[in-house]
Every structure is written in structure tokens, then in C-alpha cells.
Design goal:
Layout lengths: L1 H26 L8 H19 L3 H20 L6 H25 L10
Helix pairs in contact: 1-2, 1-4, 2-3, 3-4
């Protein structure tokens, strides 16, 4: 069962990336055609974030989270409705990359486990 807890940040990052992808695809119906290019770039960044989560690459996930949050996700945090959740999920990508970083590099250096999970 220890493998599950070590993979939890990666699963969380994948879930957040898929949620962001779905919200951008749904948002295409509400956005004007002039902003479809930005939405397409954000869809590609969501796919990159999902790949980085599955492969447990925290630096790539952090880069995808940074590029998707600034300035688009930051702006969407101030909107109402469905598009606000895109900004929230972009922030959660930072959390997932931090979790993957902690699990991956703590285990690779052989550091003592701080919390025992039973």
C-alpha cells in the first residue's frame, strides 16, 4: 500500500490536469472565437501537465502550471462562474508539483519518513 501513497500526488496532478482540460473544452462554447487560440494553447498546456503528472516530472509540471496560470489563470480567478475554476485548478497544479517534488526527491535521497501511514 506504500506505493499508492507515493503515487498520490501524481494521481492528484493527473486529476487536476484532466479537470482543467475538460473546463477549457467546455469553455470553448462560451468564449468568443477571438479567444479560441488562447484556449487551444491552454488545452495543450493541460495535456503537458497531465503527461508531467503521469511521468512524475515536477519541474515540467511546475513550468506548465506557471505558463497556464500567468496571466490567463490569474485573470480567470476574478471572473464569475465556470471559468473561475480554471484558475483554481491551475493553482492546484502548483500543489501537485510540490507534492511530486517532495515524494520523488525525499525517497531518492533516502531521508527518513516523517509521517507513518498505516
Amino acid at each position: 500500500m506504500a506505493g499508492f501513497w507515493h503515487k498520490t500526488p501524481a494521481y492528484f496532478g493527473l486529476l487536476v490536469a484532466v479537470g482543467t482540460l475538460v473546463l477549457w473544452l467546455v469553455g470553448l462554447f462560451y468564449l468568443p472565437p477571438a479567444s479560441w487560440l488562447v484556449a487551444g494553447v491552454m488545452v495543450v498546456l493541460s495535456l503537458v501537465a497531465g503527461y508531467a503528472s503521469v511521468r512524475e516530472r515536477p519541474y515540467l509540471l511546475m513550468l506548465a502550471a506557471f505558463l497556464s496560470f500567468f496571466p490567463t489563470g490569474y485573470y480567470l480567478l476574478g471572473t464569475l462562474g465556470l471559468l473561475r475554476w480554471i484558475g483554481v485548478l491551475n493553482l492546484l497544479l502548483f500543489v501537485a508539483s510540490g507534492g511530486i517534488f517532495l515524494v520523488k526527491f525525499t525517497n531518492s535521497r533516502g531521508l527518513k519518513q516523517v509521517v507513518e501511514v498505516e
